[in-house]
Structures are given as C-alpha cells and as structure tokens.
Amino acid sequence: MIEVLIPAGVMGGLGLLLSLALLLAAKKFYVYEDPRIGQVEELLPGANCGGCGKAGCKAFAEALVAGEDGTCPVCSQDAMAEIARLLGKQLADAEPVVAHVMCEGLQSSASFNGLYQGINDCRAAHLVGQVDRVCSYGCIGMGTCVEACAFDAIEIYNHVARIIPENCVACGKCVEACPRELIVMIPKGRQVFIPCKSLDSGKVVSKVCEIGCIGCQKCVKVCPSDAIWFNDNLAEINYEKCTQCYECVVACPRHLIKVRDLAEFMVTEEDLKQGFDTIAEALWTERAREKAEAEKQRQAELAAGGEDPETAAKRAKFQQGLDDARAKAAADPEYAKKLPKIEAGFLKKLEELGPPPGAAPAVDPELEAKRQKIQQALDDARAKAENDPEYAKRLPKIEAGFKAKLAALDPASKAAEHDPAEIAGSQTGEEAQ
Amino acid sequence: MADVKVESAVLRSSPHALGSEQVPHVMWTVVLSLAPAMLAACWFFGLRALLVIVGATIGCVVFEYVLLRLRIDARKAMSMSLDGSAVVTGVLLALNLPATSPWWLVLIGALVAMLLGKHLFGGLGQNIFNPALVARVFLLLAFPAEMTTWLYPRSGAQFMDLPSLAADNLDAVTGATPLGMIKSDGLQAFLDWMAQSGTSLWSMLIGNTGGSLGETSALLLLIGAGLLFWRGYISWHVPVTYVVTVFVLTGIMWLVNPNYYANPILHVLSAGLILGAFFMATDMVTSPVSAKGMIIFGIGCGLITALIRLFGSFPEGVSFAILIMNGLTPLIDRYTKPRKFGAETVLRGEASA
Amino acid sequence: MSGRGATFRRGGTHPPEHKELCDPSTYSVLPNPEQLVIALSQHLGAPAKAVVKNRDEVKAGQLIAEAGGFVSANIHTPLKGVVRSQDKVHIGPVNSPSVVIKPADDAEPVVGYEHNPPPLDLAGLEAKQIIDKIKDAGLVGMGGAAFPTHVKLSPPPGVTLDVLIINGAECEPYLTADDCLMRNHPVQVLEGTRALMKSAGIERAYIGIEDNKPQSFAVMSAAAEGLPGIEILRCRTRYPQGSEKQLIEAAVGRRVPPGKLPFSVGVVVQNVATAAAVYEALQYDRPLMRRLVTVSGHAVARPQNVLVPMGTSVKTLLDFCGGLKGDVAEVVMGGPMMGRATSDITEPTTKATSGILFLAPDEVRLPEEDPCIRCGRCVAGCPMGLVPTELMGLAMRGRFEEATDALDCIECGTCAYICPSNRRLVHWIRLAKWELNRMRRRAQAKQKQQEAEAAKS
Question: Which is the most buried residue in A106, A268, A354, C24, by most CB within 10 A?
C-alpha cells in the first residue's frame, strides 16, 4: 500500500509545487494589455498584409488604441465604423482606390525571358538590363508583383501583369514590388486610364510595342476638358479634370486608352486583327455608342435629303399614337366607336407635317389589289367581331394573320415572310373565313 | 563579316567568368581521398569489406535517385545523384560499419542516411546533420549486436574468404575494439591483451586492429586527408583543433591517473577519431562557414568526444559529438561572422568602434 | 611590401587573364562613326542637362550638356557636327536622355595621345584653378565608376588628404587599355599625377601596377625618375587588386571602414586614364571626349585597343574590329568579372567604357545553379569580409532588412566565381542592395510627406 502512496504523494506534491510556480510566474511576469487591442484585432481582417503601414494586424490594432490614426484598405466600411465606434474616433472619408498595371504591351517581355539567365524575379531582371527590341519601361512579367499580393488580385496574362479588380484591396504591396513602378492606384470611380509608361519617342515605341503610346497627341486634342497632359513622349490623364466622356478612348489610334469596367480590357492580338469596329464595340460604353449611332443616323437622313430630326420625331410619335389607338379599338368595342374621330385627328396632324421624305415607292396594281382585298377582309372581320362575342375572342389572332399578310406584301419586310407563327396565324385567319 | 545574330547573346548578371571547380569535382576528390582507407579495409578485412563498401555506395546512390525523383525530373535527378555527394555518403557509411555487416544492415543504413539524414531536410546542402553519422547512430541503437561485432584483421586464412556470419563461426575471429575493451574490462586488461596479441600503437596506426572498416588505418586516412588539404577542400581549422582538444583532455586525465585512463596517443589513434575529425566533421554542409566558427566547432567536438570516452558509458564518442555539434552549427554561424573589411580602423577624430 | 609585390590580405581569387588576345603595345584610332549617341546620364550623380537644340551646329570639344548639380559633370562633343535629336538611350537599367550628333563630313577624327608631350607648368596654377579646369573639362573616373573627378578632389571640410593613389592595376581579365596607355604615354599619366597631387595638396603618390605588366612597370618607373613623391608600386597579380579599397591597403596599409569612402583615411584614388585626362585638360584645355577601349574576346575577328570617341555604338566598334567571328555567347561592357552583359549593340560607349568583350561559347559557362553546399569558399574569398551565402539566403527569402551588409559589397564577383555550385551570389546581393536603397528612399519620401503635412497643420 505504502508503495503506491509514496509515489502518488511525490507526484502530486510535485504537480502542486509546479503549478504554484506557474501561477506565481504568470502573476509576476504578467503584461497588462489593453483589452481593446484584442477587440480591435478581432475586427481587422487578419491578413497581415501591411497595407496599413504597420507590421501586421496586431501591430495596427496596438497603434490605433495608442491613439494613432490609420486606415486598413482591406477592411469593409462596416468594420471600420465599428472600430471607430469602439475607440471613440471619427471615421474619415477616403476615396477607395484600386490598383492598375500601366502596361498592356504584348511585346513587353516575351522576348526578354528567352535571353535572360538569372534570378526569376522582375527586380533582378531589371537590374541586369534591357533586351533589344523590347520596351525598356514595360512590364517584365516574371511575377514579382503576383508573389507580393496576398489577395490573389494580380496575375500574369500573356507575359504581362494585370489586376483582378474584384480582389484588389489596394494594400499597395504590388506597387512596392514593381521595379519599374508600373502599378499605380487610381480611384475606383475613375474609369479611363492610359496603360503605358514609355518615355521613348514614337519611332522607338512603334518598333517595340504594338500598343504603346507613340505621342500622336490625338487624345490631347479631342479631350473637351483639357484633362490629358502630354509630357516627355507620354500622355497622362489628369483625374481631377477627366469627365469620363470617353472621347480619348475612341480617338486613340493604337487603342491604348482603356475603360476599366469593361470585362475584356486586355486587347488580344485577335482583337487587333479584327479591326477598329470590333474594338470600338468592346471599348465603348453604351453612352458613347448611342451617341455615335444617333449621329450616324442624323448624317444618313440629311444625306438622303430627309427632314430634320424634330419633324421626324413628331411624325414617328403621331404614327405611333395612331397605331396604338387602332390596336386599342380592336380590343375595346367602346373605344372602337370613338376610333374614326381619333384616327382623323392623327391623320390630320400627320398631314400638317407635310409629306414624308423620299418618294413613295411605285405601286404595283396587283399588289395593291391584294392589299385592298386583305384590308377589306380585315375590316369585315372586325365588324363581325363586334356582333359576335364568340368570334371576338378569336379576333386578335385573325387580325394578326391579316396584318402579317399585309406586312408580307411589303417588300421591305421579307423576313416576316418566313416567320412560322405569322404564317400559322394567317392560315388560321383564312380558315376562319 | 560573319552572318551571326547578336540576338543570341545571353543576358545575366556579373560575373561573366566562372571558375571551373564544381560540386562533382569536390565530391569525387573526397571519394578519391578515401580510397587508401578503402583499400586498407579490403586488405585487412577481406572480400566482405569490399562488399560492404560497394553495397553502401550503390545503396546510397539508388536511394538518392529515388528520393530525388519524388520532386525533380528524371534528367536532373540522374545528374544530381551522380554528382558524387551520395557516393561520399555511401563510402563514409561503409567505413563506419564493421566488416561483418549483413546486407540488410547496409541497405537500411543507406536508406536512413539518404532519407532521414539528407532528403527530409531538403536535399543537398540543406541537411543539418551528417547523413553517414545519422545512419551509423541509428544502426548502432537499433542493431547494437550487429554493429559491435568486430572482425580481427586478416582473420580467415584466405583473403578472398567469405566467412559465414553464423555466430559460432564468428566467435573465433571477432572481438572488442581497443577502447571497447578498456571501457568494459579496464585499462589493465587491455594492456595485457595488447602485449599478448602483439598489438602495438604502430599497428593501430597502420590499421592492424579490430574496428569498423575505416576506423583502423589512421595512416592511410591521413594520407587521403593530405590530398584534400592540398586541393584546398578542407582547412586545418576543424580537424586539427578536434584532435588537439581530444589529445589535451585525455592527456590531462591520463596524467591524473595513468592506471585508469589510456594514454592520449592511444585515444587519437583509435575508434575513428581520425576518420571523424578529417572526413566527417569537415563535411561542408554541416559545419560552420567561417574560420572562427570552425575552430569553435572543432573544440566542441573534441570536448564532447573526450567526455564521452572518459566518463560516459560508450567506448567511443565521435559520432555523437559530431552530431551534437552539427546541431549547434547554425548558432555558431550566427555568432562567428568574419569581421568586415576595415571594421577595425579607427578614424582620426572618432572614438574607437 | 614583400618581394612578390604589395597586395591586400583578405580574400580574392585569380581568374585566367586572357590578356594575350589584345596586344597592348599599340592601338588604332577609330575613324569617325556615322553618328554619336552621347548619353547625358553616364556618370554617378545627377544627369547633365543639354544646352544644345536639334539642328544646332557644334564644334569638336564644344560643351553640349552642363552638369546638373554639384555631383555631376559636363559633357562635350568629340567631333564637329550637327545635333540630330535628343532621344532616350538605354544603357543597362538606366534610361538616359541623350544628344545624338551626326559628325560633319569634314570633321577631324579624335586626336590621339601625343608622344613625348611637354611637362606641365604647375607653378602658375593654384589648386582651386586645377580643380576648376578639371570640372570644366567634364572629367569623371575612367576606371568604370565614372565619379565626377572634381567632386572627389573636394572632400568635405575638415578632411585632410595625404596620399594619392593612381590605379594602374587593371585586374580584370581581357582588358589591356590601361596597360596600353601606360606603356605608350607614361608622360601624360605622370604629369596628370603631379597635377592631381597639387590640386589636393598631397605630397605622396603611388602608381599601382600589377606584376603581370612588366613593360608598363619599366616604362613608368623610368619616366617617374626625378619626380618627387611619386612611387611606382609593384602589386601582386590578384583579383580584385584594382578595387580601390584593396589597392589602398596594398599601398599604404590603411583599410577604409565599411560604409566610408577613401577620403576618410586620407586617400584619394584615380585611374591612370583619368590622370592622363587631367594632363590634357590642363595642357591643351581638352575636355574628356575619347578614350582607349579594349575590344576583345574569341568572337571578334581582330581584337585590339581602339581610341574611341564617346558615343560610338558598339556595332561601329565591332565592325571596325572585323566583325563577329563565329557564334557569340555573351557581349559584355567592361571586364568579365564586373561588366554588364548587353544584347543591344546599338548601345553607345561612354566615358566609363573600358572594354567591350565578345565572348564565344568556349569562353563562357552558363551552368545551372546547384544548391549551396555551405563550403564557405565565398566567405574565404570575399575581400570585404562579408558572408555572401548568408546574404543570398536572406535575399532569397525576401528578408532584405536583415541583409544590410549587402550595402558593403563591392560586387567584385569573387564569390560567384569560386562557388562550386554556380550560385548567382552577386545577382542576389545586388537585388538586396537595390531593395534596401528603394526602401530607404521610400521611407525618406514618406518622412518628407509627413513633415510637410505637419508643417501645414
């Protein structure tokens, strides 16, 4: 029995002694830490990216509690607001920014890597120097920025770095990593940017890069707000003046100027080959395109000896009103009674506008006869529908059929001929008769 | 003008001239320097010794290739496994084994050396501990009987004989090493045995004693080490300080009590100290890079070896001493950086640094 | 000084010299090239600022760009001609503004060094006048670093200089331009030395020459007889004997502390070609416009030393030397240990171009790196007492703040040369240096910004 008690006693005593020692040590060496530091640290993302300028989230939390001001680019606004509330601080407004790689040159580094034998790092490659026929200012493409990014917001595509904007939190690590300082922060609301930093003359740039700025200054000339600044062979946008009209985007002959939110802002070699129209499609926003189309239309009408847009708009409006009224009358018997008067009113207004531009097409008597026949049948059907509710129910379909036939007679709408639904409808209409 | 494109010119950082001595040169020279000892082993211990050496070497190379293939393509793995580093490990491992080692012991040793001693750390240049010693210590602790069955030199009538490893057959031709005898039976017993068997310090020098393959011929080992000194692959800092430290410490104890402690020359010549000091402790990967560091390393090895031999229960302490000091090498490196050029200069008008 | 020649104690190596390719007993003068591209950022310090416009006509030796700050240098055109354009020129990682000059059809070629020219009359010149003439002539260090000479001769107040060392070591393999200059024109070098001594108030000068140049040593020793205070010092042939800190140790036993410049131990070092240029500036009012360049390597048909006007393209020189012979593996500006590889042979030469090497495949090794085996040879070989393998390890892991010793590296290349694993030690250390400097500049900029904001509020 005693053989068990002694060891047990010794072990137990030792355990007690050691725990007492630990307790004393914990008390004596205890470091007081403001509990708010832990709370703030909880709210921070914990990525330790260094975007705040401190050594990590813990260090940033300590700095904030100590009274320093700062910002965490990764944090959501809510988290920042919560931290501000916790510490009794004010949340200042800061315009969110996002990173951009100011190089999209297709020639940038493809040739570089073949001749270079050294450390696989953009900074190390930059130190070794230039490669003939390759841009000396452009992206080297070995991915030092990709390694620096803790948020998977940058990738190498076609030997050139590009940002994935959804993931970018603007911590600034890629900006530090790039040896040629190609990555810059642009406010999120700013859509237009010029991805080139080459200070070489146009002659040299055109030899080494398919897309780089050649200094033609077309963008400077078309900019209505004087927001493009040309200095030392390179155009730059002054974001304080830029109104995002996209004139420069359209004007640049090298398709260098880009709009950020468009999905495929990386112009591939295939795009370049397909020509300006395709690129314009990809690059222009809705507004720019509408504007261009409207302009195109106006020019076409003017060229055809047509009328000015105002009249044309009125004509279109009256014609539309007339069609609407007719449709409504067809559906509503009450309204149908009023229809002749309304029709007359519209027709009078249309007549007041004068004859529509362009000569009326020559009338084919055969076609005209057919047209009148169909129109008569349509009118008969409508009249029948007024008296016969049963028939009235089938009227829309019948009408559609006759309308389709009328439209088919119109040589301009050949497409309608082959529409199976229309044909089916017209067949029904004929059956009904 | 020749029609040649200058676009083929390579771009790299300076220097654009490179010396021609590369890793394979170094490694294979080390193997060459061990050749006299290998030959001595075969001379003293016969065919079996040759088999152990060949087996360990081939085993190490094959295991290295297999382990490299796990992370490197075939072409590079082949060139790396033949660069000589695996062969060096294999030879050193063999020289640490007794001639009576069965084939499975040799192969396990090779596997442990390559896997635990080298590739788990990351391969060439990344290991902290000497792979051959890792294997040796592993085998010693896992298979103590096989690892301490020492063959007498030139035993067995025919050199080409392959005496079977059956225990009763071996009894006649195996025995303890000198230090083993001293540890287990005491100094006097050993001296009696020396007189009786005609063993002298000289025979220990040339290798005519029991022991592992490489432990015995100090002379031939020194000749091989001379080659490495001449080529500049090892410097005096580690081996000389190691041996001197052992000599001094064992010498002190011998002076204190010559009846209990063996004399220092005996210590220097036995139980693999020469092999350890000149070939294992000087392994570049696992020893410090600066001269100051190497001296500290050598003294440390000597101190631990002496302590184990004098006061510990193991007869020989070389393997353990070197492994312990290997572990301390990163620390030694951190605190023994060479002094920068001009750091000692005191400028006029400035207080001394 | 031992019988074998003076030398530095620590580190170093001895690469094969390859000097026999290029006979230093003679040189050729390059006929006028089709154009000169004169880089404005070809010296340490601020780039020079152009003072000419396109279509301006310029005379030989006319100032085309003036110093852009205190640490900067004037630049002159070597040949008479017309300013064609001012494009950017790319020299290694530096994008430099430049002035492109088309030499006139009747322009005289650059004048060679005179034979047996008269000694300088220094009695009438004060130290300050000498320095001003040096500054006007746009002299920079011609050993490769291109440090503006007049700045070197104007140390901060309180510093006394008592030793001048003229660097004739030329320890890089292949290069023989300095050897050629000393052998053929010792008077210019020695008279320039005298002028430099006067300009800095120095009474003791050593001209260090490696013992693989016995002819230069003999010629210079003979010419120096009777000149007080000037000793021709025989140095052991070892690399990097021509590194200024190592040469200072060899000559006077003083070791410049880490992070400091030679003036901190009272020494100033100048290249032999710079000394010759000092003579020419004082005797003939000749600005720095041309220099001897060694064109060598197995891949060039006729390796030789050439007197080249600044701004000549590598291609022009290559054609003058017979063009390429066989495959070329590397084109190096400078020597093989510290030079810079280039693949653009339209690159222009500068005041600091001492040699252009066209290395054939049999002269270079382009090996793959093996892992570091911690052999310690780089540590033993580093003349500055650094631990290159540790610096490389830190740089590889991005721990640049811990690698501050990299700033003391002179990039001599000894470590990478002797590494048995062919590790790119110098490249990693240069990366560490660059990152450390960038971090320091960023921190300074941030501090300035904070100070500006604090001043505003």
Answer: C24
